[in-house]
Amino acid sequence: YAEDGYALWLRYPRLAPDSTSPGADECPRFTIILATPTGQETPTLALAQAELETALRHLYGQPPLVRLEAVDTDSLPYALRANDTKAREGFLIAPFTTSPQNNTSSSPVLRIAAASDTGILYGVFALLRQLQLSDQPFSNIAITSVPSIAHRLLNHWDNLDGFVERGYAGNSLWRWEELPDELDPRYRDYARAMASLGLNGTVLNNVNADARILTTEYLLKVAALADLFRAYGLRVYLSARFSAPIEIGELHTGDPLATEVAAWWRAKAAEIYALIPDFGGFLVKANSEGQPGPHDYGRSHAEGANMLAEALAPHGGIVIWRAFVYSPDNKTDRVKQAYNEFLPLDGNFAPNVVLQIKNGPLDFMPREPFSPLFGAMRQTPLAAELQITQEYLGQQHQVAFLAPMWKEFLTSETYTQGPGSTVAKVIDGTLNGHPLSLISGVANTGSDRNWTGHPLAQANWYAYGRLAWDHTLTSGKIAHEWAQLTFRNARSFDPETVETIEKLLLGSRETVVNYSMPLGLHHIMATAHHYGPGPWVDNLHRDDWNPTYYHRADEQGLGFDRTATGSNALSQYAPELQTLWGNPDTCPPEFLLWFHHLPWDYRLSTGHTLWDKLCLSYQQGVEEAQAMLSTWEKLAGKVDTERFTDVRQRLARQVTDAITWRDSCLLYFQTFSKRPFPAGVEPPP
Ligand code: GCU
Q1: CATH superfamily for domain 151-473
Q2: Which fold has domain 24-145?
Q3: How does pLDDT run across 649-682, given as a tens digit for each residue?
Q4: What's the Cα-to-Cα distance from 537 to each of 290, 422, 516, rounded to whole Å?
Q5: Common-topology check for domains 24-145 and 151-473
Q6: CATH hierarchy code of domain 518-560+597-673
Q7: Structural domain boundaries of the chain?
């Protein structure tokens, strides 16, 4: 059947024999009990029931019997009873063994119980996922699940004119000119997709914020979306521009310590909450890349954040303050600047402030070590900002499945409280005992029919949501789930197809690293659009935007010395990591040129010289891209024509792009190394 990708991972292909086959009658009619503290019908429970009915009708040919029941909260497992967001949003799915009175049939009965209706909705999606993933009998399914992180957000970098900054899947989903009167049906489909992953927050507008979003005119539009999203457990947040009191409020200052400024924000918060009682809070990019902020008035980031936090606190809102700050006036290595700026402020933030830090200290490169703030800042809740949209990883043209990159980050050891002090434990609040926990993913969604431009990029939205819910999931499991849910087709179901797609996904990010920025190279992409190579660029007005600032190629060698003989960014990490990464012989090859400037003839543990290894890495990336294309071509006839053709075309372009990266980077670096290409590396034309 036709597949335009709109249904995402919620396609619900028929699992049982289709209704024309003999045996269709044998499909039992399932009974599902939804048990909440009140047992009352609510908009959320209505959605849960509707989802079950539609899904099971598609999967098995007949809808289930769904019943609501009241559950005594004390009878729930402890994990679901605790008085916090995580517990409230968890769920239990278990077989119901004793037949309830009004269940006269002998058909299997399952019970989904939760302390909140949202927990039930998440349980329903988990059940539907499980039914499609395993051949387990319906009545054996037993899952208890609680999210790892309380606030699980998408950040949309959407402008009010419909343009999406770093968006590669069309325009914004939000049709501001139609809101609040006209509601695009797609808003519901978006909220449903979010709920299916357990994502519970959405920041609607770009961090490079337009103050107009906070005007009454726009707040009414935002409220219309919030009203629609509420039943899906999805709360709305907004990016706030620090200078809004001047731009839309007629004040002459935005100084966070000026009483009229604080009063303006308090009134604004009150106005917002009158319209949107469950408003999540503000996301703020301040004093970063030209955005206004507290530094404009000689105030600190903490003073700025706390002023906003005070305005939101009476309403239960939070401030998500971004740590992505660096300045052209600051001559310190850019990757050190956020740490230097924020570490001294640790302990100074209000309790409803969370600091949102990009996974790496630079900017969403194909590979970076984790930001040292995750290890160092102990008294402030720290949130991770991941980039789902592939700004530096081939945008909508290339496959780069990002779960392995995020897992690498989440499982990184900070060592701040000994082994096991992983970044994941910092973010989920357990390592430093913070009840406020949050994760953000910069969205890759847009108005394209298939939501994400590249059909396989849907896997990144999926992977982000699944990891935000449970950061212990493996990349392999996530790839398997997504491939099975997205490509399974009962009529020609072929586990090999799913396995092939899984494998292709799992290697794809490393392939992109290999042909673009291997061995710890970073920021050598083309200027502005960030697509394709540009290591030769050295004439930008800001030196910290020049690729030459980062790769430092010269006749002696390549790489950025961040040890004590160089910028000493290494000193921002725990001693264990300083020892490991500080010595090129023990530094993992993937971070080699991030931390070291090494001679072209430096010999790696593989026996290769640096120059040869660099060439071979680029070559390997090209060969892997070619292999992805030929793997995909073998799926002809096994995947529907629409998605098959779309992906094939994009993979063919990815091969061309990989060759461009290899040839241009190697030819450029060869002007310094002055060495021949090693055997096996195709000389550039
Ligand atoms: C990157 C990106 C910008 C974005 C910025 C941010 O620099 O290129 O478009 O605004 O990150 O995260 O604030």
Answers
A1: Glycosidases (3.20.20.80)
A2: Chitobiase; domain 2 (3.30.379)
A3: 999 999 999 999 999 999 999 999 999 999 999 8
A4: 22, 36, 15
A5: no
A6: 3.90.1330.10
A7: 24-145, 151-473, 518-560+597-673
Q: Does the pLDDT at position 44 exceed 80? A: yes
Protein residue closest via CA to atom 12 of ligand 1: 324
Flag whether pLDDT at 40 surpasses 90: yes
Query: How is residue 70 written in tokens?
Result: 């009241």
pLDDT per residue over 320-362, tens digit each? 999 999 998 999 999 999 999 999 999 999 999 999 999 999 9
Cα–Cα distances in Å, from 475 out to 390, 404, 479, 500, 509?
18, 6, 6, 15, 12
Answer yes or no: is pLDDT of 25 > 50. no
ipTM: 0.99
532: left (phi over 0), alpha (psi -120 to 50) or beta: left
> Residue of the nearest CA to atom 2 in ligand 1?
166
The pLDDT tens digits of the residues spanning 469-505 come to 999 999 999 999 999 999 987 655 688 999 999 999 9
* Beta pairing class for 438-442 and 109-113: unpaired
- pLDDT cut 90: percent of the chain above it: 91
H helix runs in 161-243, sequence order: 186-197, 216-230
Residue 174 Cα to ligand 1 midpoint, Å, equals 20
Which atom of ligand 1 is found nearest the CA of 206?
A: 10
Structure letter (DSSP) for residue 666 = H
The predicted pLDDT at position 140 comes to 84
The Cα–Cα gap between 181 and 113 comes to 37
Which two tokens mark 464?
Answer: 């982000």
- For ligand 1, the distance from its centroid to the CA atom of residue 288, given in whole angstroms, is 9
Residue 99 has a pLDDT of 52
What residues contact residue 568 under an 8 Å CB cut-off, 6+ apart? 336, 562
Residues with CB under 6 A from ligand 1: 165-166, 207-208, 285, 289, 324, 363, 391
Coil, strand, or helix at residue 353? Answer: strand
**pLDDT for residue 138:** 78
Handedness of CA 628, 631, 633, 639 (dihedral sign): negative
Beta bridge partners of residue 92, listed in sequence order: 113, 144
d(CA 245, CA 514): 47
